[in-house]
Protein backbone atom coordinates (compact mmCIF):
# COMPACT_ATOMS: atom_id res chain seq x y z
CA UNK A 1 0.00 0.00 0.00
CA UNK A 2 2.98 2.29 0.44
CA UNK A 3 3.70 2.43 -3.30
CA UNK A 4 0.60 4.45 -4.10
CA UNK A 5 -0.48 7.99 -3.53
CA UNK A 6 -3.06 8.58 -0.83
CA UNK A 7 -6.64 9.75 -1.31
CA UNK A 8 -6.97 13.42 -0.31
CA UNK A 9 -3.35 13.29 0.83
CA UNK A 10 -3.45 16.61 2.69
CA UNK A 11 -6.03 15.19 5.15
CA UNK A 12 -5.20 11.47 4.90
CA UNK A 13 -5.25 9.89 8.40
CA UNK A 14 -5.37 13.41 9.85
CA UNK A 15 -8.09 12.59 12.39
CA UNK A 16 -6.90 10.61 15.42
CA UNK A 17 -9.25 7.82 16.57
CA UNK A 18 -7.12 6.30 19.35
CA UNK A 19 -8.56 8.71 21.89
CA UNK A 20 -8.18 8.19 25.62
CA UNK A 21 -11.35 8.63 27.61
CA UNK A 22 -14.90 7.42 27.23
CA UNK A 23 -15.99 5.03 24.49
CA UNK A 24 -18.44 7.69 23.30
CA UNK A 25 -15.54 10.04 22.43
CA UNK A 26 -13.84 7.26 20.47
CA UNK A 27 -17.03 6.57 18.50
CA UNK A 28 -17.49 10.30 17.81
CA UNK A 29 -14.01 10.48 16.29
CA UNK A 30 -15.26 8.25 13.45
CA UNK A 31 -18.37 10.35 12.85
CA UNK A 32 -18.20 12.98 10.11
CA UNK A 33 -17.46 11.58 6.62
CA UNK A 34 -21.04 10.43 6.02
CA UNK A 35 -22.42 13.91 6.73
CA UNK A 36 -20.43 15.26 3.79
CA UNK A 37 -22.00 12.44 1.78
CA UNK A 38 -25.53 13.03 3.05
CA UNK A 39 -25.73 16.55 1.59
CA UNK A 40 -25.68 14.97 -1.87
CA UNK A 41 -28.95 13.21 -1.01
CA UNK A 42 -30.74 16.46 -0.19
CA UNK A 43 -29.36 18.69 -2.94
CA UNK A 44 -31.72 20.90 -5.04
CA UNK A 45 -31.81 18.27 -7.79
CA UNK A 46 -33.90 15.96 -5.56
CA UNK A 47 -36.44 18.57 -4.52
CA UNK A 48 -38.43 18.63 -7.78
CA UNK A 49 -39.22 14.88 -7.67
CA UNK A 50 -40.20 15.12 -3.98
CA UNK A 51 -42.51 18.08 -4.71
CA UNK A 52 -44.08 16.30 -7.69
CA UNK A 53 -44.61 13.10 -5.71
CA UNK A 54 -46.24 14.88 -2.77
CA UNK A 55 -48.45 17.25 -4.78
CA UNK A 56 -49.78 14.53 -7.11
CA UNK A 57 -50.11 11.53 -4.82
CA UNK A 58 -50.09 12.90 -1.28
CA UNK A 59 -48.32 10.69 1.24
CA UNK A 60 -48.53 7.55 -0.94
CA UNK A 61 -44.89 7.53 -2.13
CA UNK A 62 -43.11 8.00 1.21
CA UNK A 63 -42.22 4.30 1.09
CA UNK A 64 -40.31 4.92 -2.16
CA UNK A 65 -38.16 7.49 -0.36
CA UNK A 66 -37.53 5.00 2.45
CA UNK A 67 -36.62 2.21 0.01
CA UNK A 68 -34.26 4.45 -1.96
CA UNK A 69 -32.66 5.56 1.33
CA UNK A 70 -32.06 1.92 2.31
CA UNK A 71 -30.47 1.28 -1.11
CA UNK A 72 -28.21 4.27 -0.56
CA UNK A 73 -27.27 2.99 2.92
CA UNK A 74 -26.16 -0.38 1.49
CA UNK A 75 -24.07 1.19 -1.28
CA UNK A 76 -22.48 3.87 0.91
CA UNK A 77 -21.56 1.31 3.58
CA UNK A 78 -19.92 -0.80 0.83
CA UNK A 79 -17.86 2.14 -0.39
CA UNK A 80 -16.80 2.91 3.20
CA UNK A 81 -15.76 -0.75 3.53
CA UNK A 82 -13.67 -0.46 0.36
CA UNK A 83 -11.81 2.61 1.61
CA UNK A 84 -11.15 1.21 5.09
CA UNK A 85 -10.08 -2.33 4.12
CA UNK A 86 -8.47 -1.91 0.72
CA UNK A 87 -6.96 1.46 1.65
CA UNK A 88 -7.76 2.90 -1.78
CA UNK A 89 -10.59 5.00 -3.13
CA UNK A 90 -12.93 3.80 -5.88
CA UNK A 91 -11.09 5.71 -8.64
CA UNK A 92 -7.75 4.13 -7.66
CA UNK A 93 -9.30 0.65 -7.63
CA UNK A 94 -10.78 1.21 -11.09
CA UNK A 95 -7.41 2.31 -12.43
CA UNK A 96 -5.78 -0.80 -11.01
CA UNK A 97 -8.41 -3.11 -12.52
CA UNK A 98 -9.66 -1.81 -15.88
CA UNK A 99 -7.68 -1.10 -19.09
CA UNK A 100 -6.21 2.36 -19.70
CA UNK A 101 -8.64 3.49 -22.43
CA UNK A 102 -11.67 2.23 -20.51
CA UNK A 103 -10.46 4.02 -17.39
CA UNK A 104 -10.19 7.28 -19.32
CA UNK A 105 -13.84 6.96 -20.41
CA UNK A 106 -14.88 6.18 -16.82
CA UNK A 107 -12.94 9.25 -15.69
CA UNK A 108 -14.71 11.49 -18.24
CA UNK A 109 -18.11 10.14 -17.11
CA UNK A 110 -17.20 10.80 -13.46
CA UNK A 111 -16.19 14.38 -14.28
CA UNK A 112 -19.47 14.89 -16.18
CA UNK A 113 -21.37 13.65 -13.13
CA UNK A 114 -19.50 16.06 -10.84
CA UNK A 115 -20.16 18.97 -13.20
CA UNK A 116 -23.86 17.97 -13.41
CA UNK A 117 -24.14 17.85 -9.62
CA UNK A 118 -22.45 21.24 -9.37
CA UNK A 119 -24.91 22.59 -11.97
CA UNK A 120 -27.85 21.53 -9.79
CA UNK A 121 -26.26 23.22 -6.77
CA UNK A 122 -25.58 26.44 -8.70
CA UNK A 123 -29.16 26.57 -9.97
CA UNK A 124 -30.59 25.73 -6.55
CA UNK A 125 -28.64 28.50 -4.86
CA UNK A 126 -29.58 30.99 -7.63
CA UNK A 127 -33.27 30.07 -7.31
CA UNK A 128 -33.06 30.40 -3.51
CA UNK A 129 -31.48 33.88 -3.77
CA UNK A 130 -34.12 34.84 -6.32
CA UNK A 131 -36.96 33.68 -4.09
CA UNK A 132 -35.58 35.24 -0.91
CA UNK A 133 -34.19 38.57 -2.17
CA UNK A 134 -35.68 38.90 -5.65
CA UNK A 135 -32.17 38.71 -7.13
CA UNK A 136 -32.08 38.02 -10.86
CA UNK A 137 -31.21 34.37 -11.62
CA UNK A 138 -28.30 35.40 -13.81
CA UNK A 139 -26.72 37.34 -10.93
CA UNK A 140 -27.49 34.49 -8.53
CA UNK A 141 -25.57 32.06 -10.73
CA UNK A 142 -22.63 34.50 -10.96
CA UNK A 143 -22.60 35.04 -7.17
CA UNK A 144 -22.41 31.27 -6.61
CA UNK A 145 -18.82 31.46 -7.88
CA UNK A 146 -17.87 33.13 -4.58
CA UNK A 147 -18.42 29.94 -2.58
CA UNK A 148 -15.24 28.70 -4.28
CA UNK A 149 -13.29 30.77 -1.76
CA UNK A 150 -15.43 29.53 1.15
CA UNK A 151 -14.43 25.95 0.36
CA UNK A 152 -10.75 26.86 0.09
CA UNK A 153 -10.96 28.52 3.52
CA UNK A 154 -12.68 25.47 5.03
CA UNK A 155 -10.01 23.15 3.61
CA UNK A 156 -7.33 25.20 5.35
CA UNK A 157 -9.09 24.80 8.70
CA UNK A 158 -8.86 20.99 8.55
CA UNK A 159 -11.17 18.02 8.10
CA UNK A 160 -12.98 18.14 11.43
CA UNK A 161 -13.90 21.83 11.12
CA UNK A 162 -15.15 21.26 7.57
CA UNK A 163 -17.33 18.41 8.85
CA UNK A 164 -18.65 20.60 11.68
CA UNK A 165 -19.54 23.31 9.15
CA UNK A 166 -21.52 20.83 7.03
CA UNK A 167 -23.27 19.36 10.08
CA UNK A 168 -24.24 22.91 11.07
CA UNK A 169 -25.79 23.54 7.65
CA UNK A 170 -27.66 20.21 7.76
CA UNK A 171 -28.99 21.12 11.22
CA UNK A 172 -30.27 24.48 9.93
CA UNK A 173 -31.94 22.80 6.92
CA UNK A 174 -33.61 20.34 9.29
CA UNK A 175 -34.82 23.18 11.53
CA UNK A 176 -36.30 25.03 8.54
CA UNK A 177 -38.36 21.99 7.57
CA UNK A 178 -39.29 21.22 11.18
CA UNK A 179 -40.91 24.66 11.39
CA UNK A 180 -42.56 24.04 7.99
CA UNK A 181 -44.01 20.77 9.37
CA UNK A 182 -45.40 22.58 12.42
CA UNK A 183 -47.02 25.18 10.17
CA UNK A 184 -48.39 22.57 7.73
CA UNK A 185 -49.76 20.24 10.47
CA UNK A 186 -49.71 17.06 8.33
CA UNK A 187 -51.98 14.11 9.07
CA UNK A 188 -49.81 11.66 11.03
CA UNK A 189 -52.07 8.68 10.25
CA UNK A 190 -51.79 9.41 6.52
CA UNK A 191 -48.02 9.68 6.82
CA UNK A 192 -47.91 6.25 8.48
CA UNK A 193 -50.04 4.77 5.69
CA UNK A 194 -47.55 6.16 3.15
CA UNK A 195 -45.00 3.57 4.32
CA UNK A 196 -47.21 0.78 2.93
CA UNK A 197 -45.92 0.01 -0.62
CA UNK A 198 -48.38 0.94 -3.38
CA UNK A 199 -48.24 2.40 -6.91
CA UNK A 200 -51.60 4.02 -7.80
CA UNK A 201 -50.95 4.42 -11.55
CA UNK A 202 -48.29 4.74 -14.26
CA UNK A 203 -47.70 8.42 -13.41
CA UNK A 204 -46.82 7.39 -9.84
CA UNK A 205 -44.48 4.74 -11.24
CA UNK A 206 -42.71 7.39 -13.32
CA UNK A 207 -42.25 9.69 -10.30
CA UNK A 208 -41.06 6.71 -8.23
CA UNK A 209 -38.42 6.02 -10.87
CA UNK A 210 -37.36 9.66 -10.66
CA UNK A 211 -37.09 9.52 -6.84
CA UNK A 212 -35.01 6.32 -6.86
CA UNK A 213 -32.96 7.44 -9.83
CA UNK A 214 -32.04 10.74 -8.17
CA UNK A 215 -31.16 9.19 -4.82
CA UNK A 216 -27.66 7.71 -5.13
CA UNK A 217 -25.12 10.20 -6.44
CA UNK A 218 -22.16 8.61 -8.28
CA UNK A 219 -19.65 11.15 -7.00
CA UNK A 220 -20.65 10.25 -3.42
CA UNK A 221 -19.33 6.71 -3.94
CA UNK A 222 -15.92 8.04 -4.96
CA UNK A 223 -15.94 10.57 -2.16
CA UNK A 224 -16.94 8.27 0.70
CA UNK A 225 -14.22 5.73 -0.13
CA UNK A 226 -11.65 8.53 0.32
CA UNK A 227 -13.17 10.38 3.30
CA UNK A 228 -13.13 7.29 5.56
CA UNK A 229 -9.35 7.24 5.07
CA UNK A 230 -9.06 10.55 6.92
CA UNK A 231 -9.36 8.48 10.12
CA UNK A 232 -6.14 7.07 11.51
CA UNK A 233 -6.72 3.43 12.47
CA UNK A 234 -4.53 0.43 13.23
CA UNK A 235 -4.37 -2.23 10.51
CA UNK A 236 -5.14 -5.24 12.74
CA UNK A 237 -8.41 -7.15 12.24
CA UNK A 238 -10.03 -5.93 15.46
CA UNK A 239 -9.38 -2.23 14.69
CA UNK A 240 -10.68 -2.59 11.12
CA UNK A 241 -13.87 -4.28 12.38
CA UNK A 242 -14.46 -1.42 14.83
CA UNK A 243 -13.88 1.15 12.09
CA UNK A 244 -16.38 -0.64 9.82
CA UNK A 245 -18.98 -0.75 12.61
CA UNK A 246 -18.63 2.89 13.62
CA UNK A 247 -18.62 4.09 10.01
CA UNK A 248 -21.83 2.13 9.39
CA UNK A 249 -23.47 3.94 12.31
CA UNK A 250 -22.17 7.24 10.94
CA UNK A 251 -23.64 6.44 7.51
CA UNK A 252 -26.97 5.26 8.92
CA UNK A 253 -27.49 8.40 11.03
CA UNK A 254 -26.39 10.81 8.29
CA UNK A 255 -28.55 9.21 5.58
CA UNK A 256 -31.55 9.12 7.90
CA UNK A 257 -31.17 12.89 8.33
CA UNK A 258 -31.18 13.19 4.53
CA UNK A 259 -34.28 10.98 4.45
CA UNK A 260 -35.97 13.32 6.95
CA UNK A 261 -35.31 16.34 4.68
CA UNK A 262 -36.56 14.58 1.53
CA UNK A 263 -39.57 13.16 3.34
CA UNK A 264 -40.32 16.63 4.79
CA UNK A 265 -40.41 18.12 1.27
CA UNK A 266 -42.78 15.37 0.08
CA UNK A 267 -44.97 15.66 3.22
CA UNK A 268 -45.05 19.45 2.88
CA UNK A 269 -46.19 19.12 -0.74
CA UNK A 270 -48.80 16.51 0.26
CA UNK A 271 -50.26 18.43 3.23
CA UNK A 272 -50.23 21.86 1.54
CA UNK A 273 -50.68 21.32 -2.21
CA UNK A 274 -52.31 17.88 -2.66
CA UNK A 275 -54.75 18.54 0.16
CA UNK A 276 -55.88 21.78 -1.56
CA UNK A 277 -56.20 20.25 -5.02
CA UNK A 278 -52.92 21.64 -6.39
CA UNK A 279 -51.67 18.46 -8.06
CA UNK A 280 -49.10 19.77 -10.53
CA UNK A 281 -46.58 21.58 -8.35
CA UNK A 282 -43.09 20.41 -9.39
CA UNK A 283 -41.18 23.67 -9.90
CA UNK A 284 -39.33 25.14 -6.90
CA UNK A 285 -40.59 28.64 -7.75
CA UNK A 286 -44.22 27.46 -7.81
CA UNK A 287 -43.89 25.78 -4.43
CA UNK A 288 -42.40 28.94 -2.91
CA UNK A 289 -45.15 31.14 -4.38
CA UNK A 290 -47.99 28.93 -3.13
CA UNK A 291 -46.74 28.27 0.41
CA UNK A 292 -47.69 31.65 1.88
CA UNK A 293 -51.36 31.76 0.74
CA UNK A 294 -52.01 28.09 1.61
CA UNK A 295 -50.33 28.12 5.03
CA UNK A 296 -51.22 31.72 5.90
CA UNK A 297 -47.69 32.57 7.01
CA UNK A 298 -44.98 34.63 5.33
CA UNK A 299 -42.36 32.57 7.15
CA UNK A 300 -43.17 29.39 5.21
CA UNK A 301 -41.82 30.55 1.80
CA UNK A 302 -38.87 32.32 3.44
CA UNK A 303 -37.78 29.19 5.29
CA UNK A 304 -38.23 27.18 2.08
CA UNK A 305 -35.88 29.59 0.23
CA UNK A 306 -33.34 29.61 3.10
CA UNK A 307 -33.30 25.79 3.16
CA UNK A 308 -32.80 25.76 -0.62
CA UNK A 309 -29.78 28.11 -0.36
CA UNK A 310 -28.31 26.06 2.50
CA UNK A 311 -28.83 22.81 0.56
CA UNK A 312 -27.04 24.24 -2.46
CA UNK A 313 -24.23 25.65 -0.32
CA UNK A 314 -23.67 22.45 1.67
CA UNK A 315 -23.63 20.28 -1.45
CA UNK A 316 -21.03 22.44 -3.13
CA UNK A 317 -18.31 21.37 -0.69
CA UNK A 318 -18.39 17.76 -1.85
CA UNK A 319 -18.06 18.40 -5.60
CA UNK A 320 -14.47 19.66 -5.52
CA UNK A 321 -13.29 16.93 -3.16
CA UNK A 322 -14.85 14.29 -5.42
CA UNK A 323 -13.25 15.96 -8.44
CA UNK A 324 -9.85 15.84 -6.77
CA UNK A 325 -10.31 12.14 -6.00
CA UNK A 326 -11.31 11.07 -9.53
CA UNK A 327 -8.57 13.17 -11.16
CA UNK A 328 -5.82 11.85 -8.89
CA UNK A 329 -7.18 8.29 -8.90
CA UNK A 330 -7.75 7.88 -12.64
CA UNK A 331 -5.06 10.17 -14.11
CA UNK A 332 -2.51 10.37 -11.25
CA UNK A 333 -2.68 14.11 -11.79
CA UNK A 334 -2.64 16.68 -9.00
CA UNK A 335 -3.51 20.32 -9.50
CA UNK A 336 -4.02 23.20 -7.09
CA UNK A 337 -7.26 22.86 -5.04
CA UNK A 338 -8.06 26.49 -5.93
CA UNK A 339 -7.71 25.82 -9.65
CA UNK A 340 -9.63 22.56 -9.32
CA UNK A 341 -12.51 24.31 -7.56
CA UNK A 342 -12.62 27.16 -10.08
CA UNK A 343 -12.65 24.79 -13.06
CA UNK A 344 -15.43 22.67 -11.53
CA UNK A 345 -17.54 25.71 -10.75
CA UNK A 346 -16.97 27.31 -14.17
CA UNK A 347 -18.09 24.07 -15.87
CA UNK A 348 -21.41 24.54 -14.07
CA UNK A 349 -21.71 28.34 -14.23
CA UNK A 350 -20.92 28.92 -17.91
CA UNK A 351 -23.68 26.62 -19.29
CA UNK A 352 -26.17 27.99 -16.73
CA UNK A 353 -25.43 31.61 -17.63
CA UNK A 354 -25.61 30.90 -21.38
CA UNK A 355 -28.94 29.07 -21.15
CA UNK A 356 -30.53 31.68 -18.84
CA UNK A 357 -29.21 34.55 -20.99
CA UNK A 358 -30.32 33.00 -24.31
CA UNK A 359 -33.49 31.10 -23.38
CA UNK A 360 -34.61 32.94 -20.23
CA UNK A 361 -35.50 31.94 -16.66
CA UNK A 362 -38.12 29.43 -17.83
CA UNK A 363 -35.36 26.98 -18.83
CA UNK A 364 -34.00 26.64 -15.29
CA UNK A 365 -36.41 23.78 -14.45
CA UNK A 366 -35.45 21.73 -17.56
CA UNK A 367 -31.78 22.37 -16.73
CA UNK A 368 -32.27 20.82 -13.30
CA UNK A 369 -33.84 17.76 -14.98
CA UNK A 370 -30.94 17.63 -17.46
CA UNK A 371 -28.42 17.62 -14.59
CA UNK A 372 -30.22 14.64 -13.03
CA UNK A 373 -30.16 12.76 -16.37
CA UNK A 374 -26.39 13.26 -16.59
CA UNK A 375 -26.02 11.93 -13.03
CA UNK A 376 -28.23 8.95 -13.83
CA UNK A 377 -26.15 8.14 -16.89
CA UNK A 378 -22.99 7.71 -14.83
CA UNK A 379 -24.30 5.94 -11.74
CA UNK A 380 -24.07 2.32 -12.95
CA UNK A 381 -20.40 2.81 -13.84
CA UNK A 382 -19.62 3.58 -10.20
CA UNK A 383 -21.91 1.03 -8.51
CA UNK A 384 -20.90 -2.07 -10.51
CA UNK A 385 -17.10 -1.80 -9.99
CA UNK A 386 -17.74 -1.09 -6.30
CA UNK A 387 -19.59 -4.39 -5.83
CA UNK A 388 -16.85 -6.26 -7.71
CA UNK A 389 -14.16 -4.83 -5.45
CA UNK A 390 -15.84 -5.48 -2.07
CA UNK A 391 -16.62 -9.05 -3.22
CA UNK A 392 -12.96 -9.82 -4.05
CA UNK A 393 -11.71 -12.18 -1.32
CA UNK A 394 -8.14 -11.95 -2.61
CA UNK A 395 -7.96 -8.25 -1.76
CA UNK A 396 -10.62 -7.89 0.96
CA UNK A 397 -9.76 -11.11 2.82
CA UNK A 398 -12.12 -11.82 5.73
CA UNK A 399 -13.82 -8.46 5.11
CA UNK A 400 -15.22 -9.46 1.69
CA UNK A 401 -19.02 -9.17 1.73
CA UNK A 402 -21.17 -12.24 2.34
CA UNK A 403 -23.19 -14.05 -0.34
CA UNK A 404 -26.44 -12.62 1.03
CA UNK A 405 -25.12 -9.06 0.90
CA UNK A 406 -23.81 -9.72 -2.63
CA UNK A 407 -27.31 -10.70 -3.77
CA UNK A 408 -28.79 -7.58 -2.16
CA UNK A 409 -26.08 -5.34 -3.67
CA UNK A 410 -26.42 -6.76 -7.20
CA UNK A 411 -30.22 -6.49 -6.96
CA UNK A 412 -29.90 -2.83 -5.98
CA UNK A 413 -27.40 -2.27 -8.81
CA UNK A 414 -29.77 -3.90 -11.30
CA UNK A 415 -32.77 -1.84 -10.12
CA UNK A 416 -30.86 1.45 -10.09
CA UNK A 417 -29.17 0.74 -13.44
CA UNK A 418 -32.48 -0.21 -15.07
CA UNK A 419 -34.35 2.81 -13.71
CA UNK A 420 -31.57 5.23 -14.55
CA UNK A 421 -31.11 3.88 -18.07
CA UNK A 422 -34.87 4.03 -18.55
CA UNK A 423 -34.80 7.71 -17.51
CA UNK A 424 -31.91 8.37 -19.91
CA UNK A 425 -33.73 6.47 -22.70
CA UNK A 426 -36.91 8.51 -22.20
CA UNK A 427 -35.01 11.80 -22.22
CA UNK A 428 -33.02 10.87 -25.35
CA UNK A 429 -36.24 9.81 -27.11
CA UNK A 430 -37.82 13.11 -26.13
CA UNK A 431 -34.83 15.11 -27.43
CA UNK A 432 -34.98 13.24 -30.76
CA UNK A 433 -38.67 14.13 -31.13
CA UNK A 434 -38.24 17.77 -30.09
CA UNK A 435 -35.17 18.64 -32.17
CA UNK A 436 -35.90 16.32 -35.14
CA UNK A 437 -32.29 16.61 -36.36
CA UNK A 438 -30.79 13.56 -38.14
CA UNK A 439 -27.23 14.40 -37.03
CA UNK A 440 -28.28 14.82 -33.39
CA UNK A 441 -30.37 11.65 -33.59
CA UNK A 442 -27.39 9.65 -34.93
CA UNK A 443 -25.11 11.12 -32.24
CA UNK A 444 -27.56 10.27 -29.43
CA UNK A 445 -28.06 6.70 -30.70
CA UNK A 446 -24.30 6.11 -31.03
CA UNK A 447 -23.79 7.54 -27.54
CA UNK A 448 -26.54 5.32 -26.09
CA UNK A 449 -25.15 2.16 -27.71
CA UNK A 450 -21.65 3.10 -26.59
CA UNK A 451 -22.82 3.49 -22.98
CA UNK A 452 -24.51 0.07 -23.10
CA UNK A 453 -21.34 -1.60 -24.42
CA UNK A 454 -19.28 0.15 -21.72
CA UNK A 455 -21.73 -1.09 -19.09
CA UNK A 456 -21.28 -4.70 -20.28
CA UNK A 457 -17.49 -4.32 -20.16
CA UNK A 458 -17.73 -2.84 -16.66
CA UNK A 459 -19.67 -5.91 -15.50
CA UNK A 460 -17.69 -8.58 -17.36
CA UNK A 461 -14.07 -7.40 -17.27
CA UNK A 462 -13.33 -8.27 -13.62
CA UNK A 463 -15.29 -11.55 -13.88
CA UNK A 464 -13.31 -13.00 -16.81
CA UNK A 465 -10.06 -12.14 -15.01
CA UNK A 466 -8.53 -9.95 -17.67
CA UNK A 467 -6.89 -8.03 -14.89
CA UNK A 468 -3.73 -6.25 -15.79
CA UNK A 469 -1.24 -5.03 -13.23
CA UNK A 470 -1.16 -1.24 -13.41
CA UNK A 471 1.56 0.84 -11.82
CA UNK A 472 -0.18 2.90 -9.12
CA UNK A 473 3.03 4.74 -8.17
CA UNK A 474 2.38 8.46 -8.56
CA UNK A 475 6.05 9.43 -8.15
CA UNK A 476 9.13 8.45 -10.21
CA UNK A 477 11.05 5.32 -9.04
CA UNK A 478 12.99 5.78 -5.79
CA UNK A 479 16.69 6.54 -6.33
CA UNK A 480 18.90 5.12 -3.60
CA UNK A 481 22.03 6.86 -4.95
CA UNK A 482 22.82 10.47 -4.01
CA UNK A 483 23.05 12.83 -6.98
CA UNK A 484 26.11 15.00 -7.39
CA UNK A 485 25.18 18.68 -7.01
CA UNK A 486 27.33 21.66 -8.04
CA UNK A 487 28.98 23.84 -5.41
CA UNK A 488 27.54 27.27 -4.67
CA UNK A 489 30.19 29.52 -6.24
CA UNK A 490 27.86 32.52 -6.75
CA UNK A 491 25.17 33.16 -4.15
CA UNK A 492 22.56 35.87 -4.71
CA UNK A 493 20.90 37.48 -1.68
CA UNK A 494 17.58 39.32 -1.98
CA UNK A 495 17.67 41.95 0.78
CA UNK A 496 14.57 43.98 1.59
CA UNK A 497 16.08 45.73 4.65
CA UNK A 498 13.52 44.09 6.93
CA UNK A 499 13.99 42.02 10.10
CA UNK A 500 14.53 38.91 7.94
CA UNK A 501 17.83 40.23 6.45
CA UNK A 502 20.10 39.04 9.34
CA UNK A 503 18.86 35.48 8.76
CA UNK A 504 19.50 35.76 5.02
CA UNK A 505 23.08 36.92 5.67
CA UNK A 506 23.69 34.25 8.33
CA UNK A 507 22.57 31.37 6.11
CA UNK A 508 24.55 32.79 3.17
CA UNK A 509 27.77 32.77 5.19
CA UNK A 510 27.11 29.22 6.42
CA UNK A 511 26.63 27.96 2.85
CA UNK A 512 29.66 29.80 1.49
CA UNK A 513 33.12 28.35 0.90
CA UNK A 514 36.43 30.08 0.16
CA UNK A 515 36.14 31.84 -3.18
CA UNK A 516 32.33 32.20 -3.14
CA UNK A 517 31.09 35.38 -4.80
CA UNK A 518 28.07 37.19 -3.35
CA UNK A 519 25.56 39.26 -5.31
CA UNK A 520 23.46 41.54 -3.10
CA UNK A 521 20.09 42.59 -4.56
CA UNK A 522 17.72 45.25 -3.29
CA UNK A 523 14.57 46.71 -4.89
CA UNK A 524 13.70 50.25 -3.75
CA UNK A 525 9.97 50.64 -3.14
CA UNK A 526 9.40 54.32 -2.40
CA UNK A 527 6.98 56.24 -4.61
CA UNK A 528 9.73 58.47 -6.07
CA UNK A 529 11.95 55.43 -6.78
CA UNK A 530 9.17 53.80 -8.76
CA UNK A 531 8.57 56.96 -10.79
CA UNK A 532 12.09 58.38 -11.24
CA UNK A 533 14.17 55.21 -10.72
CA UNK A 534 17.95 56.08 -10.70
CA UNK A 535 17.24 59.83 -10.79
CA UNK A 536 15.49 59.90 -7.44
CA UNK A 537 17.31 61.46 -4.49
CA UNK A 538 14.93 61.13 -1.58
CA UNK A 539 15.74 60.29 2.02
CA UNK A 540 14.88 56.58 1.55
CA UNK A 541 17.31 56.23 -1.35
CA UNK A 542 20.18 57.74 0.65
CA UNK A 543 19.29 55.51 3.60
CA UNK A 544 19.21 52.43 1.32
CA UNK A 545 22.60 53.25 -0.17
CA UNK A 546 24.13 53.60 3.29
CA UNK A 547 22.74 50.24 4.38
CA UNK A 548 23.91 48.49 1.20
CA UNK A 549 27.43 49.87 1.78
CA UNK A 550 27.45 48.35 5.25
CA UNK A 551 26.37 44.92 3.91
CA UNK A 552 29.06 45.05 1.19
CA UNK A 553 31.69 45.93 3.77
CA UNK A 554 30.51 43.06 6.04
CA UNK A 555 31.11 40.47 3.30
CA UNK A 556 34.41 42.03 2.18
CA UNK A 557 35.70 41.98 5.76
CA UNK A 558 35.17 38.22 5.73
CA UNK A 559 37.17 37.92 2.51
CA UNK A 560 34.37 37.46 -0.05
CA UNK A 561 34.11 39.18 -3.42
CA UNK A 562 30.82 41.10 -3.45
CA UNK A 563 28.70 42.83 -6.11
CA UNK A 564 25.41 44.65 -5.71
CA UNK A 565 22.41 45.60 -7.85
CA UNK A 566 19.59 47.99 -6.99
CA UNK A 567 16.26 47.93 -8.85
CA UNK A 568 13.27 50.27 -8.69
CA UNK A 569 10.20 48.31 -9.82
CA UNK A 570 8.86 44.77 -10.29
CA UNK A 571 10.98 43.04 -7.66
CA UNK A 572 10.31 39.48 -8.88
CA UNK A 573 11.33 40.27 -12.46
CA UNK A 574 14.38 42.27 -11.34
CA UNK A 575 15.70 39.62 -8.92
CA UNK A 576 15.30 36.91 -11.59
CA UNK A 577 17.11 39.12 -14.15
CA UNK A 578 20.08 39.69 -11.81
CA UNK A 579 20.36 35.98 -10.97
CA UNK A 580 20.45 35.17 -14.66
CA UNK A 581 22.99 37.92 -15.50
CA UNK A 582 25.49 36.85 -12.80
CA UNK A 583 24.75 33.12 -13.39
CA UNK A 584 24.07 32.62 -9.69
CA UNK A 585 24.05 29.05 -8.31
CA UNK A 586 21.75 29.79 -5.36
CA UNK A 587 19.25 32.48 -4.37
CA UNK A 588 18.54 33.20 -0.71
CA UNK A 589 15.44 35.22 0.19
CA UNK A 590 13.84 36.21 3.46
CA UNK A 591 10.30 35.55 4.59
CA UNK A 592 8.06 38.09 6.32
CA UNK A 593 6.17 35.25 8.01
CA UNK A 594 2.77 36.48 6.89
CA UNK A 595 0.36 34.54 4.71
CA UNK A 596 -3.15 34.54 3.28
CA UNK A 597 -4.73 38.03 3.25
CA UNK A 598 -1.48 39.71 4.30
CA UNK A 599 0.23 38.26 1.23
CA UNK A 600 -2.47 39.92 -0.85
CA UNK A 601 -2.11 43.26 1.00
CA UNK A 602 1.68 43.49 1.29
CA UNK A 603 2.64 41.51 -1.79
CA UNK A 604 4.08 38.02 -1.93
CA UNK A 605 7.44 37.48 -3.60
CA UNK A 606 8.83 34.04 -2.75
CA UNK A 607 6.16 31.88 -4.39
CA UNK A 608 6.21 33.85 -7.66
CA UNK A 609 10.00 34.15 -7.62
CA UNK A 610 10.66 30.41 -7.45
CA UNK A 611 8.80 30.00 -10.74
CA UNK A 612 10.93 32.69 -12.45
CA UNK A 613 14.39 31.32 -11.66
CA UNK A 614 15.90 27.96 -12.58
CA UNK A 615 18.26 27.71 -9.59
CA UNK A 616 17.63 26.52 -6.01
CA UNK A 617 15.81 29.06 -3.80
CA UNK A 618 16.59 29.05 -0.07
CA UNK A 619 13.94 30.67 2.15
CA UNK A 620 15.40 32.04 5.37
CA UNK A 621 12.76 32.12 8.10
Task: Give an account of the 3D structure.
H(+)-stimulated, divalent metal cation uptake system. It is found in: Cell membrane; Membrane. Belongs to the NRAMP family. Keywords: Cell membrane, Ion transport, Membrane, Symport, Transmembrane, Transmembrane helix, Transport. The chain has 621 residues and is mainly alpha-helical. The protein has helices spanning 23-30, 33-38, 44-57, 62-86, 90-97, 100-133, 137-143, 147-157, 159-184, 188-193, 202-213, 218-227, 237-274, 284-295, 299-331, 337-359, 364-391, 393-396, 403-435, 438-463, 501-511, 527-532, 539-557, 571-582, 597-602, 606-609, and strands at 15-16, 231-232, 490-494, 517-523, 561-567, 586-590, 617-620. The chain has a five-stranded parallel beta sheet with strand order 5-4-3-6-7, with helices on both faces. Strands 1-2 form a two-stranded parallel sheet. α21 (501-511) links the parallel β3 and β4. The longest helix has 38 residues, at 237-274. The radius of gyration is 30 Å and the shape is elongated. The protein starts with 14 loop residues before the first strand and ends with a strand.
Amino acid sequence: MNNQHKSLEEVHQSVETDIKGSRFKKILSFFGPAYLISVGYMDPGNWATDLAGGSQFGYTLIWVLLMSNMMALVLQSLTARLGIVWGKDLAQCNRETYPKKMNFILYILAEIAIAACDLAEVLGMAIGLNLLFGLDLLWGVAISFLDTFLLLYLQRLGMRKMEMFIIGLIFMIGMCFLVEMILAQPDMASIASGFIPSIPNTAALYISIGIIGATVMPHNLYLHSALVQTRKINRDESSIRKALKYNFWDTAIALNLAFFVNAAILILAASVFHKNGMNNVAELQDAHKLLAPTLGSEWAPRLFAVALILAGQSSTVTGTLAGQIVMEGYLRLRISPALRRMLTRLLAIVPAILVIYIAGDDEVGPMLVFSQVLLSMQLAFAVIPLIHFVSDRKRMGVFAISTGLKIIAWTIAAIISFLNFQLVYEEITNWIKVFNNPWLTALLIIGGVGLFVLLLLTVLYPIIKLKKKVNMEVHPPFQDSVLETPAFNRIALALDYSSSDPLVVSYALKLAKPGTQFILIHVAESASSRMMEEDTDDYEKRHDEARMSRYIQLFKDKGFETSFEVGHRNRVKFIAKVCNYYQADLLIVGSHGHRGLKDFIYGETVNRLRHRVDIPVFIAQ
